[in-house]
Amino acid sequence: MKRLIKALLRPKVLVLLTLLGLLVALPLVGYWAWQKRIPQKIALVMRNIVYNLFIEKHPKGDIYGVVKIGEMKEVYISELELPEEEEEKKPEEKKEEKPGEKPVEELPALEEEPETEVALAPKEPVKVKRLPLHKFPKEFLPLKRVLHPPFKMGACAVCHQVNEHGEVIKVGNRYPLTKPRIDELCYTCHKERYLKKYDHKPVKEGKCLKCHDPHQSDTKKLLKAPSVPLLCASCHAPDKARKLRIKKVVDINVRYKHKPVDKDCTKCHDPHTSDHPKLLITSLDWRMEFCLDCHAKVKDPEVRKKIDIRPLITKAKVKHDAVYKKNKCMNCHNVHGSNNRGMLWKNPVQQCLECHNKPLKKRENGYVLMNMEKHLKENKYWHKPIEEYEKRGGCAACHNPHGSDNIFILKGFFPEGFYVRGLAFKDLICFNCHKERERFTQKYTTTATKFRNGNLNLHWVHVQGRKGRSCVACHDPHASQWPTLIGKYTNFNGILFPINYKKTPTGGSCAPACHDEYRYDRLRPVENVPKKGG
């Protein structure tokens, strides 16, 4: 230990350690100073000192501040008097009389009427000087990034009343303004008045200072919050809106936020006034067309690139009614944000069940869709995308909620009939997820599937040949009483036949309308003999 201390106390080592300490400390101190804006503040102070001492030298008689129009009186000038020097030089005019011309008798001079009104001389305008930086009230220091121009110039008299000495008047803790209403004061410079069809309430009430600081801010436009969304949330957040009795509520503390809500609300709304409802900046229908102005292209996770959804909405063969009814896009999406993926009002499954909680008739073909909410409640086992909606996307894993050219607005091809001739697993939407090809291509197997009689692959038996069945002949794509999603009914040409599926520890049996009761067993193969006349 002593040797270590002696080694560290050597001059060269001390110098080296000091240099290393400085190398580490200087960037940290510099970063801290930059965050606190110390260099900017020092530069601003030095600039003001140099500007006031050497550059800004005003001759006597310069006026800074506001001259009140009410203090001026109209002045009438009766005659223009020449300067004394010119009067002396002016020669006296003599009239020459012409021969034979009678002299014109001069008319007697009219008596001057006494003046009834004497013009008042204008009051001398108040002379004010710019307020130097070191005299700014302490509450304004250190200065912020964005300064209101009159405040930056120290021309406080532009907005505040001054006395005969040009000093700003202070009454208690207040500095009286030159106008009784703050909005009238603002309009003396900001000439654009907000007189459109819809006004933001603070604008309508003349409360400019609800959103803007009249002196300085760290945010553009002199806003009273670090960003536009945070400023809007100061009134429109759920808890604030409840207290202020504001109907329009926006929660920005959600998991999935609309990008303008996260960055700048003015991308969609005018913060002052608008001719369009919701203070929108466009006449486009905000329930769809305005959304599509930006959202024509959305990410498709399957192709991993953006696709244009306009054709799906406008030209798709199979349309989703929810896209067109009443609030259109807003039927499913919260335009500001939510805690659900895709900014849905509810989770992907519950959102669909908002409408699919009763039988629905399809307008394309009159087909009646089942009460899906009831179906899911009655069956214990759900299709994985529905069960694991956060991970797999819910109903949208198979259906395109905006529209499709496939039946049931499916994202891929699926046959309408009971049979599929020349079935190719790569063509059906089911095989986008179910990749086990050998389950449908191998006649004999002991590992590819549990649906086998001994080693005879019963999946292969059902899908091959001229009468290959579609997946939904046996399986329910939504929910079932069994883990393998065996359906309760099979739909044959619009008629529902019970499948009568029974499960055993090593196999099972079924007796649909297409054949008698057939049994299968993985360990002890069963020979199924059709009944006579069956």
What does this protein structure show overall?
The chain is built from 18 helices and 19 strands. Helix 8 packs across helix 9. The chain is elongated, with a radius of gyration of 43 Å. About 6% of the residues have low confidence. It has a 3-stranded antiparallel beta sheet, with no helix packed on it. Strands 1-3 form a two-stranded antiparallel ribbon. A two-stranded antiparallel sheet has the order 2-5. The protein is α+β, with helices and mostly antiparallel strands. Strand 17 and strand 18 form a beta hairpin.
Strand order of the largest sheet: 17-18-19
Number of strands: 19
Rg from alpha-carbon coordinates: 43 Å
Question: How much helix is in the residues?
Answer: 25-40%
SS class: alpha+beta
What average pLDDT do the residues reach? 81
Sheet-strand content, in percent, reads 5-15%
What's the shape? elongated
Low-pLDDT ranges:
58-91
Distance, first to last CA:
99 Å
- Please, how many helices? 18
Major sheet characteristics? 3 strands, antiparallel
Secondary-structure topology with pairs:
Blueprint (H helix, E strand, L loop, with lengths): L1 H7 L2 H25 L2 H18 L28 H6 L56 E2 L1 H4 L29 H6 L10 E2 L1 H4 L11 E2 L10 H9 L1 H7 L11 E2 L1 H5 L9 E2 L14 H7 L1 E4 L4 E4 L1 H5 L22 E2 L9 H6 L6 E2 L6 E2 L2 H7 L2 E2 L1 H4 L1 H4 L45 H4 L10 E2 L2 E2 H6 L15 E2 L8 E4 L2 E4 L3 E3 L2 E4 L7 E4 L13
Antiparallel strand pairs: 1-3, 2-5, 4-8, 6-7, 9-10, 11-14, 12-13, 15-16, 17-18, 18-19
